[in-house]
Each structure stands twice: as C-alpha cells, then as structure tokens.
Amino acid sequence: MTYEFKGFIPVVHESAFIHPQAAVTGNVIIGKDVYIGPGAAIRGDWGGIVIEDGCNVQENCTIHMFPGVTVRLEAAAHIGHGAIIHGAHIGPNCMVGMNSVVMDNVILGAESIVGALSFIKAREVIPPRSLVLGNPAKVIKRVSDEMIAWKTKGTQLYQSLPADCHSHLKPCEPLRAVPADRPRQEALYETWEAIRRAK
What is the pTM of this model? Predict the structure, then answer.
C-alpha cells in the first residue's frame, strides 16, 4: 500500500484513506480527508507529489512526473476514475474527468472542470473557472456558479468517504443469494444532466 523509496517514506494524515489495493510510493504527502481509490498509483520516485486536504484520487488513476518535478493537487481537487496527472499542477476545487490526461507543466486554474476523455497537452495554462473539453483540450466556456456548486457537493461526498471507509470497509465473503431484507442505498447526489432537466 505505501512504499519507502530511497529514504522517502510517504506522509499520510491519519484522517485520509488509502485503499489497500492502491500503491503510494516515496516522496508523497497526503493531507486531511483525502480518498485514494483502489488501483491508484501515486509514484513519488523521481519527484514529489503533494495531495492537499479534501482531495480525492479515484480508482485506477496515475500520478507521476519527469525527474525533479513536484506534482501538486490543491485542496478539494477531484480526480475522476482512470485519469492521469503527469507533472501538472491542479488548482483548488478543480475536477478532472474520467480517463482524462493532464500533461507536464500544465497549470489548471482554480475551480476548473476538465471533461471526461480530455487531453491537456504539456505547458498549457488554463485560467480559473474554465470548462475544458476535447483532444487536444480547449477552453469552451467559463464554469458557472451553479456548476461549481454541483462539483463542490460531489467532492464533499468524497471528503466524507475516508471516515466511512475507516468505519465500515472490511473484507468479507460474498453472499450466494440476495437477502430479502437487503437495504436500499440512499440517493446522495444527482448528475449534472438531472439537475439541468429539473429546471
């Protein structure tokens, strides 16, 4: 789960949760209420990685860099399933969509949203509150107050997930049939499309 490399041992706040199937290596600092999902590879072997308070790095994400670079995820950054962050700086309260790639020396401005499957090429500087889509990615419009409020609510779910995992996640044997009293899961969040349709 966590690995020392050349004298660097990851520093992880006690409130953070790193899934046992994630790998965190070397010069990595992880703040409060951070969630690291299964399959994530956070590899601080050639440079540093700082993941500030309230961030989440979801399943199968990769964070790495060229030698001598420090990758930083500022507070409440939200990195969707399968995304790659390579040598970039992700601003506070940003969201990087599923399977997106953010390349070396990119600066993603505060409260920006990167759409799923986008590719941000090296050395791009994205202004704050930008909605970024495509391959190569382009800024298509400014992120609205409503959109950032929706993103922030989703990130808050992930900020509560580490405590839930510490309390409730445990290995188990599977059931062989669905029990009659199986509980219903509560609806905690709506998609952006559902919110827009409701208006």
Answer: 0.95
